[in-house]
Amino acid sequence: MEDKLKMLVLQIKDGNKDAFTEFYRLTVRYVYSIVYAYLLSNEDTEDVVQNTYFKLYVVRKRINPEKSILAYMKRIAINYAFKQMRQKRKVITKETSFAKDEGTKELVQEALKKLDEKDRLVLVLHYLDNTSVKEISVLVNEKEGSVKSRLFRARKKLKEVINSETI
Amino acid sequence: MKQSDDKLKDIFNDFKNGLQLNENMEGRLLGMIEKKERSIHKRKFLLGLVSVAIAAFLVISSVAPVFGKSGTLPQVVAGLNLERAANSFNGSLSTEGWIIEELENQDLSPADSIIIVALLKESEVSVNEIIEMRNEKMGWGKILSELNISVNSIKNTLKQAQHVADEEDGNGEGEENREENREENQNQLKFVVIKGILNNIDGSKIIVNETEILLTEETIIECRGKSVAVEDLSIGNELLVKASKIEDVFEAKSILVLTNMKENNVPEKETKEFELRSAIVSFDGSILTISDFEGGILVDEYTKIQRTGEGRVGIESLEAGVTVQIHIRKDGDVYHATSIVILEKAENEEGSEENNGANNNEQSKPKKETFKGEVSFVNPDDGILAIIGCDMLFQISEDTLIISNGKAEFSDINVGDSVEIIGTEQEEGEPLSVEKIIVLKEEGKNTDNSNENSNSQGKESPGKP
Description:
- The complex is a heterodimer of chains A (167) and B (465).
- Chain A starts with a helix and ends with a helix.
- Chain A is mostly helical and 167 residues long.
- Chain A contains nine helices and no strands.
- Chain A is globular, with a radius of gyration of 17 Å.
- In chain B, α3 crosses α7 (140-146) and α5 (110-122) packs across α8.
- Mean pLDDT of chain B is 75; it is low at 171-189, 262-270, 346-364 and 442-465.
- In chain B, the strands form three sheets. Chain B has a seven-stranded mixed beta sheet with strand order 11-10-9-14-15-12-13. Chain B has a five-stranded mixed β-barrel with strand order 2-3-4-8-7.
- In chain B, a hairpin with a 2-residue loop joins β2 and β3.
- The longest helix of chain B is centred in the first third of the chain and has 40 residues, at 24-63.
- Chain B has helices at residues 2-17, 24-63, 73-87, 97-104, 110-122, 127-135, 140-146, 151-169, 173-185, 344-354, 360-364, 441-451, and strands at 92-95, 191-202, 205-208, 211-214, 220-223, 226-227, 238-246, 249-257, 271-283, 287-290, 297-298, 304-307, 311-312, 323-331, 334-342, 368-379, 384-387, 393-395, 401-403, 418-424, 432-439.
- The N and C termini of chain B lie far apart (126 Å).
- The interface between A and B is medium-sized, with 33 and 22 residues.
């Protein structure tokens, strides 16, 4: 997968629009899931994802193909998501709550809503993207210790919610 | 712990797979990109166009006079450079007296005067030719190019003059140089243009830079077109002094204050300035009335009165009927004449200048006479007019200036009108050629009636109204 993306990045650098479309199709679900798990709003997530890919296209000539493009995308997406969250603090209250018999997506979403914004992001990055604590600390600009305690607190809370919902 | 983590990962994985992505997102993104690319192309195209236009303009302007009378781009740049050098010039330049007088009569900027004096030192060109070109709004770069003189040579002249002034400011060697210059220039130096800072005022003496300059009654001091008194000058003012040099004594002819003076020196009322060329209707010693202007114009000791070719003259020269070029400034509600140039006599004298050296011819020149009286006969077809009590006929031509509350036509003159006629005597039997008629309709009728007896022959002393 990484090799394929690397090859596409080289083509995107040369201005190949088809390669960009292919790259988008391969990676959009990944970017979308991270952003959505944090913002919990389809509308805002779409804006952030769109801006992230647009930014990538604008700066395509400066991309270093030797470095992980997904990490780069994640960085851009999180920055835009932070910005979006600052602008719209209403995201969580806007969403409707779900009944006990809803699917996994709704269940997780309901549980995530009950977490602190930063805790949620830390949890999502760790469990959804397998991002290491060290990398998360860089992304959210916090010490590793803080990230670990956020992770612990969020995990505990999530489990409580999920258990209470599922049992 | 591990199990619980794996369970969470599974849950999140299901969460990720359960997300429904909006299919329109891709289309919207590609649309955004396309729009961006279009705007980039457009910007690049416009930038290219502007660059090409600038390059083309630079190329064309370096060979063609695209700046009109200022010439080509290099000429404009050279001209601006030269003007900057002249503006920053601080020293003295010598020239001849008549050149100073010529410059005085022109409405030139200080920089222009300095450049002209420097230019005359460098070449044999005529000062009038330069002034004429400058008055035609030609740039200095173009003027120098037409005269085939390099800008650098003028700049060097200015530099040298400034260098001499700087050395004179110092001691030791400067003193020696000054002595040398004095000896060297003793016979040539007649007039100088000095630009510098006023360092001292002592009665009728001022010191500009290090040069002591005497002020006389004839010294004209002006600031922004307004006459100012010596008392209004302050130490530190930047001045442009045009002075004559007799032996080692500088005598100021005119002083132009270049720095803005204090508000209390020159009152900052709402002012409006304009210039008119017209004939004097009346002058009572302080209020002047001219034909093309409603209301009186104040003439006072600050009014500069000149007659072309003669220089400054007194207020007694402001006679009714005389054509003048008058510079009027509106100070609040008062119209103030800042300068008056009497043109009429000069026109007549032009002829006399041409005949200069042949005084005998003066006797054969036709005499100008003034007649006053009531019109007895008018024939507009032949342009003939007669007045009561005078057996002479008057010939009106296209050149005749007719004044009746402003400029009027011959057809405006009727039998019974009181008129004052200024004309030139012709050969015996020929009608007198009329130069000017002033119709004194309303006021004139009464006054003329009273004067009728005294002017029983309708003829006054020649040359006087």
